Amino acid sequence: MATTASFIIVSRNDIPIYEAEVGSATKREDAAQLHQFVLHAALDIVQDLAWTTSAMFLKNIDRFNDLVVSVYVTAGHILS
């Protein structure tokens, strides 16, 4: 089964500062835009959870079709 993971680091001001796609699945033309759309839709959930939990890894916080969003939150609240 071919899968692709999108790794994005987002600053506290919701600005992506690093993006990488890793995997063996064939690339769709709109994959980068779709990943950014799903990421920005999940940011509100992440921002609420980051201040209410001490956990640094937030697993499966959002889902869109076959895409799942899991997040690591740093002590400085930079998301990756």
TrEMBL record:
Pfam families: Sedlin_N. One of its GO terms (biological process) is endoplasmic reticulum to Golgi vesicle-mediated transport. GO terms for cellular component: cytoplasm. InterPro entries: Longin-like_dom_sf, Sedlin. This is Trafficking protein particle complex subunit 2. Coiled coil: none annotated. The lineage of its organism: Eukaryota, Viridiplantae, Streptophyta, Embryophyta, Tracheophyta.
